[in-house]
Amino acid sequence: MPSTRRHFLSAAAATAACSLVPFSSSSKVLAADPPERNGKSLLKLSLAAYSFNKFFARRGTPDEIAAAEMTLEKFIDYCAEQGLGAAELTGYYFPKEVTTEYLLSLRQQTHRLGLDISGTAIGNDFCLVAGEARDTQLAECRRWIDYAAIMGAPAIRIFAGKVPKGDTEEAAVERCIDGINQSLDYAATKGVFLALENHGGITATPDQLLKIIGGVKSSPWFGVNFDSGNFRTDDPYRDLERIAPYAVNAQVKVMLHTADRKKAYPADLSKVIRILQNANYRGYVALEFEERNPFEEIPKVLTQLRDLV
């Protein structure tokens, strides 16, 4: 895409996002812009550890983790066996007590096997009202920024959260934006991207997600984690096209959902990949498999994705 046209489209997208955000006293900086591309897409396959969710121990003791059918070390080996070049080490499956030595052991193992760590993820909620619970969320985010930096993981998937009972969405969005901005200042000092995922709650629709983006300060360390399976709208493909320009990380799922949240149907993976390519996305595309029989089915999906990318 010619440079002038790319800049025009980027400016137009940013302006559209800004227009969704009412002015407030916190609006002191320019809104986050789509990342600059070079006009050519490059997709690198990864696999999210969440694909084996039920086989992991969550935040367990060393004994609990060792007894589980899947561990992060086994998962890294699995990714290498599948011929992948990257693995997403989802934060839920790390030990309850995370040490620098453990993080470095994962970094050593992945590099020795020729794998990148495409990212990690935390289950934060930035909609919480001021108080100890919110402070804990912010501290947890900073801690995982540190963990990502030690492992050499370029990005963390973060979440916005849900409107607390009795509160308004407008107030929750303001707190979410503030939480992202605070965390973003710290992430920038560590060289770690914060990738906001479209994940229900106050990011259930593209309009909601773009409203938050419009309030986040302009930073090269912020963007969207594009998740192909999380919009439950009338036309998920249309809505994914709207957020793809902001992607700094991406996930694909094999199923989509209708607006009534009751019916799931197979995703057109070629269409999903084409959306990323048309946005000139360059980066990791992690398969997050949530269906049955992951050991049997994941290799089949990876074969299909290899053909598409």
Short description:
With 309 residues, the chain is α/β, with parallel strands linked by helices.
Largest beta-sheet characterization: 8 strands, parallel
Helix content: 40-55%
CATH superfamily, called what?
Answer: Divalent-metal-dependent TIM barrel enzymes
Strand order of the largest sheet: 1-10-7-6-5-4-3-2
Q: Indicate the mean pLDDT.
A: 91
What is the total domain count?
1
Instruction: Tally the helices.
Output: 10
Q: By helix and strand content, what is the structural category?
A: alpha/beta
Question: How much of the residues is beta strand, in percent?
Answer: 15-25%
How many strand segments?
Answer: 10
- How far apart, in Å, are the first and last alpha carbons? 19 Å
- The Rg value, from CA coordinates, equals 19 Å
User: Which CATH architecture would you pick?
Assistant: Alpha-Beta Barrel
CATH topology description: TIM Barrel
Pick out the low-confidence regions: 1-29
Return the string of H and E elements.
HEHHEHEHEHEHEHEEEHEH
The shape is globular
- CATH level-1 class: Alpha Beta
Structure description:
The protein is an alpha/beta fold. It has one domain: Divalent-metal-dependent TIM barrel enzymes (TIM Barrel, Alpha-Beta Barrel), CATH 3.20.20. It has an eight-stranded parallel sheet with strand order 1-10-7-6-5-4-3-2. Strand 5, helix 7 and strand 6 form a beta-alpha-beta unit. Helix 6 packs across helix 7. The two termini are 19 Å apart. The N terminus is likely disordered.
Topology:
Elements: H1 3-19, E1 42-47, H2 62-67, H3 72-81, E2 86-88, H4 100-112, E3 116-121, H5 132-151, E4 155-158, H6 169-190, E5 193-197, H7 206-215, E6 222-227, H8 236-243, E7 247-252, E8 255-257, E9 264-266, H9 269-278, E10 282-287, H10 294-308
Helix pairs in contact: 1-7, 5-6, 6-7
